[in-house]
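I hope you will forgive my troubling you with a question about protein structure. The record follows directly beneath this note:
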Amino acid sequence: MTNRGITVNNVIESLPLSRTHYYIVIIAALGFMFDSFDTYIVSYGMPSIVREWQIDNVTIGMLSSAGIWGMFLGAVFWGPFTDRFGRKAGFIGTILGFSLLTGVTAFTHNVQEFGLVRFVTGMCLGGLIPVNTALASEYVAARFRGRFVSILTVLWPFGLLVAAVAGLSLVTVYGWRVLFYLGVVPGLLTFFVAFVVPESPRWLVSRGRTEEAGRVLKRLGASDADIRNLVEENKAESVSISALLNGPYAKRFMLTSGYYFFSYFGYYGFVLWMPTIMSRVYGLSLATTFTYTLYVAIAAILGRSTAFYTIEKFGRKQLFYVGFGLGGIAALVFGLIENPALLVVGACILSFLYEQGVAGTVVWTAELYPSKVRATATCWSTGAGRVSSALSPIVFGFFMDHKMYYGIYVTMALFFWVAVALVYFFGTETKGKSLEAVGAA
């Protein structure tokens, strides 16, 4: 490496993975798992909540989506906040906020209180995943980045698995509130973020803090010689959401917000309703419902693990084609199943497929934008998905109320396929390319 005109990107692209890299990915992955657990405990607690408060299907959908509406506002806030104050500040603020508020949820006594607290909780949940992804993508070279970030997505279904196990072993005995007591535990992760995870060197240099960026690069494995002539970059100007709607980012923002909106409508609408569908439509007991969803969680882990393997071998776009393209077909077939014995098999196949597509949305988005706007773009793109995933439980609740069960699966398939079409016509493959090469350094 020559030292003339060295940039942070030059240094990062030359570095192998270090112990600090592994610390970062472990902590970030745990953040994904805890976010997932907190998101899914509502659906696993819902059958018990329904029995206690005697609520109808539309109200179930509204309660399931209350936190997701909050996620949208959270994405609007936490993206600009993190681009301004740093990745660590965003990470700590989001995870500490939602863990404390989840504990408060356990003390609610009616639908109104529950919905309000979950809405506020969602404002913190909505920022964690995009902030976490933006942070994790900025430390590693292109040759590691896809799998480095996809490891985070593998931990997402583990949160689903933990929620399913807790639902099966605890809710049937202690009631739904025990899930929300457990939701306080993720707050402990903030201590590790504060003392173990360094600030993103890309963000630091974008703010004109080149000396600090150099110190972080040394923690990542760079030598004194590597950073001796590190280029002083101009401090990045604040970037507003309007910058994503025109100029060089417009096409990419249409792509990322579009595939989040359409894919998440089908995905969240189904996963948040799945336990209730199994118990109400198929008449399964609470224990059997949670057992089936446990198998579905294992299939989700296998789907994300498959994405981890294939993302650097075949690229980002194939995750959408396999996950949402074939997932749409699987949804149509799943909706025809009447035999409860076959139900779990169909649900596992569907879960295995669509989880690969969701992994693609998380990894790809952060790779398409430069550091000065990465968190804002990722949060706003995710925010589009939060809007659709808040609407879909209500729409699916309407289908349930009117016994239009197959409408759920037709809607899933159509929305999945629109996301695939956006990727096909507007997507730019980033496999093996540096962030600089794809215009996102």
Summary: The chain has one domain: 8-426. The mean pLDDT is 85. DSSP finds 17 helices and no strands in the chain. The domain at 8-426 is CATH 1.20.1250.20 (Growth Hormone; Chain: A;).
